[in-house]
Amino acid sequence: xxxxxxxxxxxxxxxxxxxxxxxxxxxxxxxxxxxxxxxxxxxxxxxxxxxxxxxxxxxxxxxxxxxxxxxxxxxxxxxxxxxxxxxxxxxxxxxxxxxxxxxxxxxxxxxxxxxxxxxxxxxxxxxxxxxxxxxxxxxxxxxxxxxxxxxxxxxxxxxxxxxxxxxxxxxxxxxxxxxxxxxxxxxxxxxxxxxxxxxxxxxxxxxxxxxxxxxxxxxxxxxxxxxxxxxxxxxxxxxxxxxxxxxxxxxxxxxxxxxxxxxxxxxxxxxxxxxxxxxxxxxxxxxxxxxxxxxxxxxxxxxxxxxxxxxxxxxxxxxxxxxxxxxxxxxxxxxxxxxxxxxxxxxxxxxxxxxxxxxxxxxxxxxxxxxxxxxxxxxxxxxxxxxxxxxxxxxxxxxxxxxxxxxxxxxxxxxxxxxxxxxxxxxxxxxxxxxxxxxxxxxxxxxxxxxxxxxxxxxxxxxxxxxxxxxxxxxxxxxxxxxxxxxxxxxxxxxxxxxxxxxxxxxxxxxxxxxxxxxxxxxxxxxxxxxxxxxxxxxxxxxxxxxxxxxxxxxxxxxxxxxxxxxxxxxxxxxxxxxxxxxxxxxxxxxxxxxxxxxxxxxxxxxx
Length: 608
Description:
By secondary structure, the protein is mainly alpha-helical. It folds into three domains: 6-233; 241-254 and 264-358; 392-548, Serine Threonine Protein Phosphatase 5, Tetratricopeptide repeat, CATH 1.25.40. It has helices spanning 14-18, 23-36, 46-58, 64-67, 70-83, 85-89, 96-107, 112-120, 124-131, 137-152, 157-161, 165-186, 194-201, 207-233, 239-242, 245-250, 265-274, 277-284, 287-298, 304-316, 318-334, 347-361, 371-390, 395-417, 421-434, 440-456, 460-473, 481-494, 497-513, 528-540, 545-550, 559-564, 576-579. Helix 19 packs across helix 20 (304-316), helix 19 packs parallel to helix 21 (318-334) and helix 26 packs antiparallel against helix 27. The protein is elongated and about 90 Å long. Residues 1-5 and 555-604 have low confidence and may be disordered. Residues 6-244 form the ARM repeat N-terminal plant domain. InterPro entries: ARM-like, ARM-type_fold, ARM_7, TPR-like_helical_dom_sf.
């Protein structure tokens, strides 16, 4: 029997066509279906198209529908939606341009051959119209995704670039996407378009789920716009258009949020820009961007290595080094004990080499280096020389140095417990000078303890520096719980919400996996002080925060709005050292216990 009998009332129904048992007849029927669909006005078209979208998502490398004309069909359907608003408003046709663009993006995601077929089928012009905002932000999201895939391949990039407005539109969208989604959807529940809500939740959720998904889609809209721009950034002729000062300042803050942690977002684009001499010249002229890159390079962000790449390339370029060295050098010094990161197998050695070259360039007037920066580099070079000397030092001498460092550390602990924080910091500095460079575990403790002193002395920059050094020395890197918590508090003092949030979350993760009774979560419960900091920083780092402030606050229900709105209680967060004073019971009391009325103070210093 050649085909399955069906009771379907619709002649030529796609699902009935796909049930055809004879492969040859099925392909002929599908080919006919794709050719005729754009000219038909029958009801129920959205159902087979959503089915095609599911197929494209599940099997993006399957050439069957590509060979049968799916790209031509989808391009025609998008044009139909753009030109025939009466048809678009009929039945459920409003969904069709969205699904059509999504299908194009899915089938061009992995295969350059498919992308070439799509370009020949004429998909770019209708996608560009969607990118312009001819419909809504929902269609912009899938259009920029599809164009980003087409721009990825060398053979199809020129076809995208021939539409000169694509780059400008992508830059505008990356800059304004969060505000667009907030003001056009998130802000007012009663104004949300029904088909937007259906697409966001697949009909499975209410207002709260719509809001959560809207934040995720807004992040994707921004990140996919950055991905498209990134394709242009590899071409020097487009860098002048990309590297506008206002855009470069914003880029480090485009991070995707917790809802889209798999995208390098703004720092990924900056890394591409910094691969080019022209790009580095533009970035080096924006101190705020350099500062932000330094913060990312020090952080526990998954894309830390990308920021490190940018800083190293800027320092290695003689035409930019003199502009950035006094900002960048302290960050690289803090990172000089990392053994491996990203593509770097010996990052510390690379940093030392870069800083040595920087010192050598400082002889001429253009390369003059600041006194403080020179002093810090000299200290680093001396420490690396000490490490080399220790390799030939008798073990007895190393043991003597270790013992001397331990004595001084204990003196620091005693001073700390008695309330002499500045004196304790000095003792930890003395202990670091005595402690062998190869005694990494002990140096982690000393840097971390001194970071706590700097916190209490209201010196957050120094605390961040020491906590970062402790995290770099620790094995595995960036996983020393106490240093993560201390740095989270220091970032909080400086108002760096994203960096504080990431460290606080990692601190909680480390506690959940720790065998240390002082750190492990009691009854699997997150400590109140850590929970409060995370909630505070989630409010401050919320993707829609800037848009909400601009447009008059939050006007809908849901987790994000609750966190940002009237429930916000910042009164207990005056300073990091005060906020967690009575709640930090991590054993070593690392995080700022308050002075007791009886003069007693809990010991916050590590004993090991």
